[in-house]
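Annex B. Sample input.
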Amino acid sequence: MWNLEQFRKDLETVVNIDSGTADRDGVKAVGDFFEDKCKAMGFVTKRDPQTLTLEARSREDAPIDILMLGHMDTVFPRGTVAERPYREEGNLAFGPGVADMKSGLLVMTTLAERLTKEHPELNLCLAFNGEEETGSLTTRDWMIGLGKQSRYAFVFEPGRDGGAMVKKRKGNIDLILKFHGVSSHAGIAPEKGFSAVTEMAHWIIELNKLQDLTVGTSVNVGLVKGGIASNVVPDYAECMVDLRFERMEEMEKVQARVAELAKSSFVPNVTVDVEYQGIFGPMNPSEVTEALIEKTNAKAAELGQTIGWVATGGVSDANHIAALGVPTLCGCGPVGGNTHNQKEFLELDTIEQRLDLFYALMPELK
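Annex B, continued. Sample output.
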């Protein structure tokens, strides 16, 4: 039914292309590989040389019945493939991006090839992102545009233990704070200095007060820097804060407190620049998504599969599409683990399971 031998050959090919987000040549090479496959299937393709996105449609008209999304970039720098290329060991495959998420991209194209032959009435769109690992800063609007045209969306991030998929993800914002003070000699004229580092320390304490794990809100000041020497009052400091939340009102509460803090400084003559980066709204299952989950469970049961559903604090491109009200599932790819890690692996026997499930499910979503 499925040519799994060819699938694994293709998987070896794409895993053995270094495609860290900053490696534009590598990401482009992965895009070239998938564009060739999509064109061979008769899909109409569109590339953006700036964002490195690839869009492939079975038909150019809208609406899109099924939107399948994935990302071509990994977190691994050029040279990683030379250190640990694709390999198989029993039921496991290893290599950079093997689970996150080059196997998911191949599931997308393999499904689309068969679906477009046997169910030509379906209007399919495959969307390949080139910068998901750094927050989809320049591709977010492109994905949202596709989502607005779509009836259903499936994101082929790796499946979880036991074949589970993701029904809920927290929202996420990276908050970057840059503090500007006045430098001075700490011994000779400390009164003439106004410490950016001290101002930052006050902010860190105040931001940590916003953490409320009982409602799913976490605050992590993960990166700080400032100062040039112990005997110089620092005139510059910077920190990056990771904010996670389950409800939009929690995000708005954090933003309101940040705006309030920025109105006046704890340390005189210190100012702050506030920048929000990589904003992901929370992915909370809507009524239509819950209905899609039930259909997926029923189809899995017919095939002798059991699907678990998990919530996670991690974000993905599914957050953007789900926020539109489009029924969206994530973690649709084959099962893997140790992602973003040199021990990343893929469970090979779950490839066919995912192909069978979504081939059976998607034609019924009319």
